[in-house]
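quick one before i forget lol
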Amino acid sequence: MSYEVEHNIKNDPTPQHTRRPDLSTFFSNLELVNTSTTQNSNATPMPADMRAVFITLSDAFRSMRQEGGGGLLDSLIESLEADADSPPREVQGVSDAFLDELDRVPKKSLKQADSCPICGNPFLDDKFPLVVRLPCHKNHLFDLECIAPWLKLHATCPMDRKNLLEKKEPPLPMKEEEEEDGEYDEMFA
């Protein structure tokens, strides 16, 4: 018995058009260079393995590019190719926990014209869109499948290049007049 039959899912005969490639090779290569999960704290990935990670993601993004090119996807490809030419000593991306904690955007708040800046697919074309908002800007919305590979290698927003791991300084609390005068509240004295 198939999954669809077991769960009473009707098979839709119209094929879903997607420009998202299979990223299994990228994630396999990423496991080779990710030193955050290794037991040996002195382990460093081989430069050839680091290069392979950047090249596989670059190739995946290139396959998503529409004719004519331009825009964000081209700049991401250029950046990945530059990283492949002189790979860093270690992966400088975000953790899985960071990806899990990204704000999810509910489907009902998405507009028909909203689309992923990386793949270009409208969010609402997907039956169950998994859209995330990056903390740098309220309008930086991405398909999680598209943004996760970039963030695993770079801790920056692909649109404005802000470092997503930098903590924002909380605003300093305003002092009350009593505290400025050197007087103490009797309750805390």
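fyi The mean pLDDT is 77.
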